[in-house]
Design a protein that fits this description.
alpha+beta, 2 domains, 10 strands, Double Stranded RNA Binding Domain, four-stranded mixed sheet
């Protein structure tokens, strides 16, 4: 397990760093290696201690953020929350047997709004990022979207191998966009 701890607006402490590492080793029992964890510990307005972790393991990404008046309490709550997410994920995986397909690489590009509004032939690219999309079921995609705290998620359907989008509706339900063949 790779754990990177970053301190913001506070002095770095070996005791806090080892406490985070010790607590995060609890989650190893829920998911196979390799696990990368990015932990950011910060102090806001001198009284709010915030602990945030983003964990990536075998195509699964989870995020947990907690704010308390005590850093150790914030870390405890953050780890408890990520542990509950992993437990829920593992239980769902036991109920669902995943398909065997390859990952698909997709490109995410962000364009400058001014260049698009001006109607130029080539809009200005602000940022571009490519990543692999793991084939998964709709249920798994909804769970992944919830774990990431996102409003939508593009994924490859493990049965049809088509790109789909699942999204959170304003009424709290979920929507699914499936491409139709011509």
């Amino acid at each position: 397990m790779q754990i990177a701890v970053t301190f913001r607006h506070m002095e770095s402490s070996a005791a806090v760093r080892s406490y985070v590492e010790e607590k995060l080793t609890r989650v190893k029992k829920y998911i196979d290696e390799p696990i990368d964890a990015q932990v950011v510990l910060s102090v806001q307005k001198k009284i709010n201690h915030r602990a945030e972790v983003i964990m990536v393991a075998k195509g699964l990404t989870m995020k947990s953020t907690e704010t308390k008046e005590d850093m150790y309490a914030a870390i405890d709550l953050m780890v408890d929350k990520i542990e509950r997410q992993l437990k829920k994920y593992k239980d769902k995986l036991k109920k669902h047997k995943g398909g065997s397909g390859g990952n698909r690489r997709i490109e995410k590009t962000i364009f400058s709004a001014e260049s698009v509004d001006a109607g130029s032939d080539e809009p200005e690219i602000v940022r571009s990022h490519s990543f692999f999309v793991k084939p998964m079921s709709v249920e798994e995609a909804v769970m992944q979207m919830d774990l990431l705290h996102k409003d939508f998620l593009a994924f490859t359907d493990d049965r049809t191998e088509e790109m789909n989008v699942v999204y959170r509706r304003k009424d709290g339900n979920y929507g699914l966009i499936v491409p139709q063949g011509s």
